[in-house]
Design goal:
The complex is a heterotrimer of chains A (about 300), B (about 210) and C (about 210). Chain A has about 300 residues and is an alpha+beta fold. Chain A is about 45% helix and about 25% strand. Chain B is about 65% helix and about 0% strand. In chain B, helix 1 packs parallel to helix 7 and helix 4 runs antiparallel to helix 5.
């Protein structure tokens, strides 16, 4: 135990080093030595970090993708053998005109702002099989003739779950400005544009408050509703009825189809979303996000369905 | 000019009790309030700090012969930044879910005064093995503080521990809110003071030059 | 930030001034770095005992914080991002902070020794304040534009200075008060900070834009 040092504040170590520097200003050779030493240290640091980066980066990408795959499989009730295709969307401003590009597994579709097709390109097999989104984006950028400084942006994606050769449903990735930062979510949609389920992937809402959006009793309030129902849905501040809450908690232990069959009357009897107690902002944010994602998806799907 | 280091048990107890980096030295408080809304997050950041502290202490001790004393502070900072980045990448790659919630704070370990002050006060004067134990004790002290605060807040704020339902009362939201974090740490400090009084020690506040004055 | 319209796509480009003001208010009040993000607490509790030191630290930190936030954004945008060197973020940003602190120290000493006498001590504390590092990191993860980055730096520094000032006022009063022995010093400071955090909850949900 060194009592003299126990009370030293965080700055003291730094301070004393400063004092020493003031007492003896370094001469020219020493300055050189210090400069070279610091440069070498920084170089060594960069090399060590680069090495670790190459070690962990592939694992990171793999883990994120595996997690997304698992989420999509759960949302659409797919077997591991099912295939999941990705469709990516890009915005390309050419001066004042906007072009939208869709990269499907088969084709790269260019449409104008109103959604009228301009042209399509065949997607090479190696690009379609590419795991890394960066490489896909680079290929699209190059195909679109967008240079380094062009106003060209990736603007979201959705997935198509294919089970035994038939489309089992779609999953849209969306984000909505929540109470603190962006809330990122996956929205599962069926062929008739009804909602199959919602899964929050990333958020920074407060635990016990906004973070409750990840709980079954909240996120399952969207499941099993038709397009028109979601389109007209509003958030209300009434407390969630206990019986309805119990039923919402069951979804996840049973599959969507049987849950909807059993609770159709209940779903229709509760046409609004009950806000989380004390977190109306987060609840409204998610609801608006779901509505927007669903409308946009329906519009975009009509453009790209011919090229899937 | 290495002094004889204190015994290992003293160093570890010191980190947990009389020189606990959070409740006693009041260094590295940011994460103690921020990520202790659940035991799991507290534990994760505690482990991250523990590993960075041990590695940094050992590296500083190993390199003390070649570090020019005039530029040791920037060198320390670079050493810490290396280990923090390594930790950050590892957690991001293998624990993506928890990492999302504590990611920013893992990166901010670089600015923790506790790590650099242990390097300055201990590692530069002692050999590798004692430095290892000193880092071990301090890191463990931080870890204990994080888990303690995390357990307290999760139990009262969400009625669970590690995500498992424990008590069936309506949880106190206040404890989970930012304000609750401050209250929790303050109350645990009071507890430390109370134990000190019972043992007949002087309170840090009443020692000359104690606490976190500048 | 563009808003995707329900019918078709249109985007609203807010003016630079509007972005700046909303960013500053957001970072200073709505999500104050000390009371809602819990950053910079060591320095916050360390130098908030006296009003004078709080003001000194607030001013010094403001200058260095805005400079480092801006410089870090420039470095990240011009070098780290295009070269895919994101993993060097932490080292690069802390390096910028260290250089700035050292540089400000030298310049102050040469130009205004009186100021240096007054503020030099706080300069050294800045490196151990996590707010200074959190600003560039948050900007980098959010992919902020230049105006957004500057407004976040400004707002964070203003918010930090405000928190310090409020806290120092309260602590000067508490020093005179008969506080129970167990609570003296840091514990009571934490309780006060908690009360401030509660009152700052009042700003939450405020929508500036």
């Amino acid at each position: 135990m060194v009592p003299a040092q126990a009370g030293r504040g965080p700055g003291d170590a730094v301070m004393s080093a400063q004092l020493e520097q003031q007492q003896a200003p370094p001469n020219a050779t020493e300055m050189m030595r210090i400069a070279v030493g610091l440069t070498l240290t920084c170089l060594a640091a960069a090399i060590v970090l680069g090495f670790f980066f190459y070690l962990t980066e592939p694992a990171k990408v793999r883990n994120i993708q595996a997690r997304e795959q698992a989420m999509i499989q759960t949302l659409l009730a797919l077997t591991p053998a099912a295939r999941i295709h990705e469709v990516r969307r890009y915005l390309h401003w050419k001066g004042q005109t906007l072009e939208v590009l869709y990269l499907t597994p088969r084709a790269l579709v260019r449409v104008d702002e109103a959604g009228n097709p301009l042209d399509t390109r065949e997607v090479p097999a190696e690009v379609a099989a590419e795991k890394s989104p960066d490489h896909k984006d680079a290929w699209v950028r190059q195909s679109a003739g967008a240079g380094e400084n062009a106003n060209f942006n990736y603007a979201g994606r959705f997935f198509i779950g294919e089970q035994d050769g038939a489309v089992a449903g779609y999953v849209v990735e969306g984000s909505t400005p929540g109470y603190k930062t962006w809330i990122r979510y996956f929205l599962a949609i069926d062929a008739r544009f009804g909602v199959q389920g919602l899964e929050v992937i990333e958020h920074e809402e407060d635990p016990g408050l906004g973070a409750e959006i990840t709980q079954r009793y909240f996120k399952n309030q969207y499941a099993g509703r038709r397009f028109e129902q979601i389109d007209a849905i509003e958030v209300i501040k009434d407390p969630l009825p206990n019986d309805w809450r119990k039923r919402l908690e069951q979804l996840g232990d049973m599959d969507l189809d049987s849950w909807v069959r059993e609770n159709r009357a209940e779903i229709d009897a509760h046409p609004q979303i009950h806000a989380i107690t004390g977190s109306t902002i987060s609840s409204v944010a998610v609801t608006n996000g779901v509505k927007r994602s669903l409308r946009n998806f329906r519009k975009r799907m009509r453009i790209v369905e011919a090229y899937l | 000019m290495t002094k004889a280091p204190p015994p290992v048990s003293t160093m570890i107890m010191r980190g947990i009790f009389e020189e606990n980096p959070v409740f006693r030295l009041a260094l590295s408080l940011c994460p103690a309030v921020a990520v202790t809304t659940s035991v799991k997050n507290g534990l994760m950041l505690g482990v991250a700090v523990f590993v960075v502290q041990v590695l940094s202490s050992v590296s500083a001790s190993a390199l003390k012969g070649i570090i020019n004393p005039k530029i040791r502070i920037p060198i320390f900072t670079i050493i810490i930044a290396i280990w923090v980045t390594v930790m950050d990448m590892t957690l991001a790659a293998y624990f993506p879910v928890t990492y999302q919630q504590v990611g920013l704070y893992v990166k901010l370990i670089v600015a923790f005064a506790i790590i650099i002050s242990r390097m300055e006060l201990f590692s530069m004067k002692h050999n590798i093995v004692p430095s290892f134990w000193d880092g071990f004790g301090m890191g463990l002290g931080f870890l204990v503080a994080m888990v303690l605060a995390g357990a307290f807040r999760e139990l009262l704020g969400s009625g669970s521990l590690f995500g498992f339902e424990i008590v069936a009362f309506k949880p106190l939201l206040l404890v989970i809110l930012p304000a609750g974090g401050f209250f929790t740490i303050g109350l645990i400090m009071v507890l430390y003071n109370w134990v000190d009084l019972r043992l007949g020690h002087k309170l840090p506040e009443e020692k000359v030059g104690g606490g976190c004055h500048h | 930030m563009s808003i995707a319209g329900i019918e078709g796509l249109w985007s609203i480009e807010p003016s630079v001034v509007a972005l700046l003001v909303s960013g500053v208010i957001g970072a200073a009040l709505i999500s104050n770095f000390v009371f809602t993000k819990y950053l910079g607490l060591c320095v916050f509790f360390g130098v908030s005992r006296k009003r004078e030191t709080a003001i000194g630290m607030g001013v010094t930190f403001g200058v260095v914080g805005v400079l480092s936030g801006t410089l870090s954004w420039l470095l990240h945008h011009s070098a780290l991002e295009p070269l895919k060197l994101d993993f060097l973020q932490i080292i690069a940003f802390i390096g910028i902070v260290a250089c700035l602190v050292q540089g400000t120290d030298l310049v102050l000493k040469k130009i205004a020794p009186a100021l240096h006498k007054k503020f030099g001590i706080y300069l050294m504390l800045i490196t151990t304040n996590c707010v200074i590092l959190a600003i560039p990191l948050l900007n980098a993860t959010a992919g902020a534009s230049f105006v957004e980055a500057v407004s976040l730096s400004l707002g964070a520094c203003l918010g930090f200075a405000l928190a310090l000032f409020l806290m120092s006022c309260a602590r000067e009063k508490v020093d005179m008060a008969p506080v129970p022995r167990l609570f003296r010093g840091l514990p009571i400071a934490f309780i006060i900070a908690g009360l401030f955090a509660l009152s700052f909850l009042g700003f939450s949900g405020l929508k500036v834009m």
